[in-house]
Amino acid sequence: GLPAALPALPLELTVLYNSLLFTAGASDSAIKGEAEGIRQGLLRVLEACGACGQDLGTEELWQKVLQEVTMEELQAPLHHLGALQAAWWLAAGRLGSVAGLFQLLSTAEDPERARCNGGQNKLLSLIKAWQVPAEEASLPLVQSAKDLKEILCTAAAFLQGLQELEAGNFPTALSLLQEAAGGFCSKKILAQIYTCLGCCAQRMGKPQTALQHLKRALQIDFQCLPALSHVAAVYHELGETDAELQALTLLYEALGKTPPAAASSSPCFLMQTELLVHTPVLTSLLRHHHPSEVKYLLAQRCLQDRRVADAVEHYLDFLSLLQEGLQQQVPLHGSSALPRIPEVFLEAASALEQAGRHQDAITMCEEVITRTTDLIPQVLRVEERLEQSECASPGAELAGGLLSQKKESLCCLAWRAAGYLHQGWAWAKLGKSKEAVTQFSRCLSDLLRVQLHGSGDKPTENLQPEVEVLQKIRLLSLIGRGTQFLELGRHKEALLDFQHSLQISPGDAAAASYLVQALWKLNRKQEAAAQWQKLYQRSPGEDGQQQGPFPLYLVSCLEQVMSTHSETLARSIQDYLRTAAQDTSS
Questions:
Q1: Which residues, other chains included, contact 542 with Cβ-Cβ below 8 Å and sequence gap of 6+?
Q2: Which CATH number belongs to the domain containing residue 502 in this structure?
Q3: Where does the Bacterial transcriptional activator domain start and stop, copy by copy (predicted)?
């Protein structure tokens, strides 16, 4: 409350500098908002000089103070406070304001030094050009301005590197991040910078360089677990499954351990780079995976790579985590690696089925069927009109909600139908053809709930992926039921299913192959031979099964129907065609 006095201002500004540093260091969290204390300090300086600046913004206030206050004894305290202001602005992402402030600080000392060299980053050049004023023994600082300058350089390079990375300017981002890596920071921040360098190199199409940076991050700080998850992603991109699974296993084990207390090898500073760099892009790159997510990734990758026994183990471990209630701690949306829980159950059923544990697969699917039954309407209309007219009207928000609800219903229907589909194939593997037919029929009955309406032949574009999945499930179920009708000797019913399959997916190789078998068993050998010739004269690109991609939980069913080639039947048809040709020639 005392009036500002020029003789006391150097001490007053130094006390302000130290107190703000103590406040920032004690918070142990990122700096946010404005440093109101700095503004009040500047106003005190103007007051002592007989000037006023209450109506000025903080940037204009700094400009007025540095241009009008020329007393030599105030220059060092003002420069110290200016560096602290730059820290607050860097934390807020106000890089332009920081550049302007250092332009003023350097101009106040030496106009020539304020000019940055061509080709260099302007902000970094301005910070480096700033001459740190000498400290006075009578006015000690809790953190030297020289150290603060180094931290500002590192943070400025890091922040700009992240900005360029987000903008897709990868060479510039790489240069700035390398500049930051050579700066003044803790091991924790250095590991984060190398992680970002790895991500940048990966996006530049340089996976080996990315691995070098990411491994360097882990050497510096093994608790930088996001680097390990990025290593797994790079190995996945390279197709090195063994290395990817090893990285994921290490990540899962590390996440399950209590991290040791961080012992920083760098000097203890109140103002650190950690407090200045907190952007959404960095948060995204350094996102920590929940152990359940990593366990799911292990299961998924093993299933995709046909490591069935390992896949089963990982899926069952993951599902046990869910039963323990840990799913409430797992992010189920956004950047999470987890799909919807019913899909995980179906993938687990697929793994169990491939491992020969058919009864367990049936039980797993029953869980999905039971839980989705009440979520599916009796009739589900997919209308083109909703997309074309209602979504463009003033009630577009309502229409969007209806569309989202419809998609959710289609997803639930697909999960339930897929559950019946897997049960059908599981019963078939157990040699229970009647039970298999029952489950395939339930699947087909479920799919009759969907009614496609509209002026065109195709359903609304926004619903296309969901509808395609349902169509594929219908196709697989028809083929599956047809195969079981063949096993039961009900050849006419089998023929109808295979014909219906080809109506859904004309040219489908599996359906066409089974159709040949059904015709041959019905002694319609001429038709069977004609279909067989068509089938084996077709180019590989005409195979209807190559469409997709489809959910992972359907892959085993797709492979099941593709294994249809019968050497014995092929020889029989070839003999028939030779005999027919001889009869014709004679």
A1: 507
A2: 1.25.40.10
A3: 458-538
